[in-house]
Design a protein that fits this description.
Length: about 220
């Protein structure tokens, strides 16, 4: 048993050392390491978060890249979106609107359509009633949507989302967070969205190797 544990630990250390020697992208240059607990998703799943706003023109430009990435992402990746407000009333309205849509199970299917409505069709959303009208096109009852939008649960989720934005050090959108451990965004070193998502894939692969090695340690202890 002791030998199994030693071997598992050696595999973990060895995999981390190998990664460090062959890294395509560098910490502090292409991504930022966060002082947060790694996401405990279980089963080797890697959590990827997109911090975005429907009011952000860069997020609209980024969306086709995200859709392509989603169709080709690793099977162990679970995407979660955080709508940011940054204290701006118009942004917070849309962020809360997304949360209400998420609560009603239509956020994913309506996401691209909302971007398109704002940036291509030039629709304006200035009230919860405007949002309820839009989301009714995805099968939700207007009154039920407004009730969700104004609910205590939406309040709590909104506060949690904005707390996470601060914890992850998000100060612009779009920003990607990998396993609550790394932050990736456009910078002097990351000059386009293809490269940004390539860094995300790199970090997903890095975390997948580490998770597999840690699983070996746990099995060895068992």
């Amino acid at each position: 048993m002791i030998q199994k544990i030693i071997l598992a630990v050696a595999l973990l250390v060895g995999s981390q050392s190998a990664l460090a020697q062959t890294e395509k992208y560098q910490e502090g240059v292409h991504y930022v390491k966060l002082n947060q607990a790694t996401a405990d998703t279980g089963s080797g799943t890697i959590e990827v978060i997109e911090a975005f706003s429907y009011a952000c023109s860069h997020c609209n430009t980024f969306e086709p890249y995200m859709q392509s990435w989603l169709s080709n992402k690793a099977e162990n990746v679970n995407l979660h979106r955080i709508p940011v407000g940054f204290g701006r009333r118009a942004w917070e309205l849309l962020a809360r609107g997304y949360i209400a849509a998420e609560m009603m199970g239509v956020a994913d299917q309506s996401h691209v359509a909302m971007m398109d409505a704002i940036w291509n069709k030039r629709q304006q959303f200035r009230s919860v009633e405007n949002l309820a009208e839009f989301y009714s096109g995805f099968g939700v009852d207007r009154d039920a949507y407004i009730a969700h939008f104004k609910s205590f649960a939406a309040d709590s989720q909104m506060r949690r989302s904005q707390r996470d934005v601060q914890l992850y050090g998000v100060n612009g959108t779009p920003t990607m967070i990998v396993n609550r451990k790394y932050r990736v965004s456009i910078s002097n070193a990351i000059t386009d969205f293809n490269m940004m998502l390539d860094v995300v894939n790199f970090l997903v692969a890095k975390e997948t190797v580490v998770a597999a090695a840690e699983s070996e340690v746990v099995e060895g202890e068992g």
